[in-house]
Write a structure and sequence with these properties.
Elements (H helix, E strand, L loop, with lengths): L2 E5 L2 E4 L4 E8 L7 E7 L6 E6 L5 E3 L7 E6 L4 E6 L8 E8 L2 H5 L10 E2 L3 E6 L1
Parallel strand pairs: 2-11
Antiparallel strand pairs: 1-3, 3-8, 4-5, 4-9, 5-6, 7-8, 9-10, 9-11
Length: about 130
């Protein structure tokens, strides 16, 4: 059983930055695909970004050029650096882990592909 714990959320002004962390424990490995999703109340959870074992990354168009996902396999931790934040980035951010099949099928953006989820961390961007 893989456990994911997010941290680093908070309140920031528009244009500011935050870094989220996702620490994984249990039978994890660098072979997992790690992703970040976000959700606003009343809306569906949406894909933000994903990273595979060789460092390949994928981003939603809405965050390209502003967000960066990285992973430290030695620490079993994934990071999401968020720069130039906008009020529309306000959401609960979730870390997720899925099998290598996600990379094969190229379905990084589908939440149903991810088996393990963290509890979420709130990010609020004020205007």
């Amino acid at each position: 059983q893989v456990q994911l714990v997010e941290s680093g959320g908070g309140l920031v002004q528009a244009g500011g930055s935050l870094r989220l962390s996702c620490a994984a424990s249990g039978p994890t490995g660098s072979s997992y695909v790690m992703g970040w999703f976000r959700q606003v109340p009343g809306k569906e959870r949406e894909f933000v970004t994903a990273i595979i074992w060789n460092g390949g990354t994928y981003y939603a168009d809405s965050v390209k050029g502003r967000f960066t996902i990285t992973r430290d396999n030695a620490k079993n931790t994934v990071y999401l650096q968020m720069n130039n934040l906008k009020p529309e980035d306000t959401a609960v951010y979730y870390c997720a882990a899925g099998s290598v099949g996600i990379a094969v099928r190229r379905t990084y953006y589908l939440e149903d592909e991810y088996r393990y989820w963290g509890q979420g961390t709130q990010v609020t961007v004020s205007s």
